[in-house]
Amino acid sequence: GETRDQAGETRDQAGETRDQAAEGRDEIADERDQIADQRDQAGDQRDLSGDRRDEAAERRDHAADQRDQTAEQSEASAGARITTDALNRSLLARREAASDRRRASQDRRAGAGERTEAEADRDTALADRGAGASERTQAEGDRDTALADRGAAFADRGAGASERTHAEDDRDTALADRGASARDREASSHDDLTGAYRRGAGLVELKREMARARRTEEPFVLAFADVDGLKEINDSHGHAAGDRILLEVATALREKLRSHDLVIRYGGDEFVCAISGLNIHDAEERLALVNAALAEAPEPRSITVGLAELQEGDSPEALIARADAALYRERR
Fold first, then answer.
1. How is the beta sheet containing 220-227 ordered, strand by strand?
2. What is the pTM of this model?
């Protein structure tokens, strides 16, 4: 899911980059169009200037013609009697006419140059507009690609969300499996009849409690309890009666000891109890409450208990052995 989201972000960034590129291309195209407009305007102005020069040339040619006609009329009317002054005026008129024609020719050449430059401006404007159109085409392509990138990003995010949903389902299933596994372990570690720890699982817990007591330097007492007369009850009343007695004993142990004290069914009629934080005297008082509760039952029962305190270097087996020896001494 995270990989898909990262891919979506990458595609979105690519889309934004392409959109920015498209905007840049559009700006360039706009600039080219503006330049083309300016060149067209310059061409129009040059054409206008050329027209004006042609008009001026026409006026100069017309003036030159008039000057020549005036000179010819003056010379014709004077005939052989032309004076020096009239001749000078005629020559001056013809020189001015010739000057007008030269300037008219210059104006026409300048007008032709203006038109040539105007044509070049229009050609350049056309090229600019072509380049602008190309930029816009590329910008459109960039936008199409950006749109495709965003579509792919949306698909990636959708796939990521789907994968997260599947992952969540997998986690829920795993959690349910762990819960079921924990319940299975709990069921397999506890005795079906009494609810106390089975021997194997109980010894693992006992080792853990002993290590905790050593770390915290708290007192730790192990009780080895044996149900009195259970064999006789089984022989005379049957195993169902014996099972009821075992259940009553286990219930009394759990009720009179503390909730965190460990109760293990060690053998057929034997229980091992781990009591942390109490010295051996306080542990004896707790177990006396167990016997008092059993004595008040409709069918009074009792247990015999041997106690041993945790010592340096004790293993679970050594501590249990000392408590069992104490039980043996109690029975004697």
1. 262-265, 270-276, 220-227, 303-309
2. 0.48
